Amino acid sequence: MMDLREPVYGWGERVIAAVDLVNDGSYPGVAAEAVLAATGTPGEIVNVGHHADSNTPVYLVEFLSESGSPLVVGCFEEELLRP
């Protein structure tokens, strides 16, 4: 059995998008390939999960959309930075 890889970020932590986070088609109600959060957009970790097949932490991050409404996006560590 594989040891779980520990997440770098924790629940409630402030982060920023390290890259443009683009809809891969899995975010409902938003066009595929649309930018969900642009590089530099601040957000907050609202949940930390784990992708079992790749032993990779997955973060649910709440960003504010351009209209000001919350948008929760699934992110990998390499897509996030600490401010």
From TrEMBL:
Keywords: Nitrogen fixation
Highest rank taxon of the organism: Bacteria
InterPro entries: Nitrogenase_MoFe_mat_NifZ
Entry similarity comment: Belongs to the NifZ family.
Protein name in the entry: Nitrogen fixation protein NifZ
